[in-house]
């Protein structure tokens, strides 16, 4: 397994005592820790079993003695926030919980028992070009989602993609966000991080952005990355299609601005395989979530605001970074011009009228701007609604008298509290009220909250990508 590396911060006298901003329970009160599954640069991963139901998970334990300064503690906290930020994506390893004690920080994650993509490539010996293209399409989707949500992975390689099971058709999932960072469009980075076999040339030159996640090479290390020509003469390249080689040439363009984007790769004939290619770049995560929020009824909008305000710091850290990206004057509110500029920077081509409509939908209290709470409500991933405690909490907020029902009077009062117009509430209740008793019970509320949430967050912006081609195509067959 090839190592990742990063610049080590010098020791600091201001080293904090904990990574998490809150106290947690003891990991072993809830989980039985078993055999070692893997060893990384900063932590060891173990099998762990939930004592309550016997379900198996993976636990990454990071020894705090390896965290030498404040920046190292902040790096681990950012990794946790990023995993929560991305955890609703079907091809990202889901984080279940975080624990901290005097010696370790523990990240409990879904267990992917199928092993690394790297190992499966070695085990199989070869992939067909078609199978390699299918894997790449999945990886493209993950990186596209990362960039859409303002995250640069910075350590993409076959070792950091896991299969959920040993099955031949098991889903592939991205993991290890230890070197990942939040970024803003146009922001440049200078710290040299990644893995030697996969690092992009601009990273070595210490001036790079998200395009670095596109680069993929096995041809050589630093000198070859910076200067060496592409070699399509040695095996197995003579047997590989011109279409595949053409795609690779464009993905390995040393100029980040000329390198293929995710959209261009997804439209490439080698990836498309007789299916219709997307005819335009996909929406950014912010834009697609704002669009969906604008179509919701008043109760659902208010409920999302209630839920968003109760989410933990680690769950909303990523959305906080997106808010800061758009709120360029750091006023704590997003104006129309800031929203227009922010959406333009992530690839949106909406008209001013369309942006104004989204603005009005997210501006729950009709103040003319979007505050932080409103932004969270409008952009939180709706899959978080599946958690029962969030639904119970939101229902209880509206059911002021604890009767088990939300009445029209309670709904009208909530609208006034949120600055919403309380007109047409009777029509809205009729749509939600399945047994026609004139009020909303908990089951009806849950059905309304979960309706139409299945595809949220799947549409994401055109962005750079990393494709782990080298190992798969080295042994590919026509």
TrEMBL record:
SMART domains: EFh (SM00054), S_TKc (SM00220). Residues 314-349, 350-385, 386-421, 424-455 form the EF-hand domain. GO terms for molecular function: ATP binding; calcium ion binding; protein serine kinase activity; protein serine/threonine kinase activity. Keywords: ATP-binding, Calcium, Kinase, Metal-binding, Nucleotide-binding, Repeat, Serine/threonine-protein kinase, Transferase. Its EC number is 2.7.11.1. InterPro entries: CDPK_Ser/Thr_kinases (IPR050205), EF-hand-dom_pair (IPR011992), EF_Hand_1_Ca_BS (IPR018247), EF_hand_dom (IPR002048), Kinase-like_dom_sf (IPR011009), Prot_kinase_dom (IPR000719), Protein_kinase_ATP_BS (IPR017441), Ser/Thr_kinase_AS (IPR008271). ATP binds at residue 60. CDD domains: EFh, STKc_CAMK. Coiled coil: none annotated. It catalyses: L-seryl-[protein] + ATP = O-phospho-L-seryl-[protein] + ADP + H(+); L-threonyl-[protein] + ATP = O-phospho-L-threonyl-[protein] + ADP + H(+). Belongs to the protein kinase superfamily. Ser/Thr protein kinase family. CDPK subfamily. This is non-specific serine/threonine protein kinase. It comes from Apostasia shenzhenica.
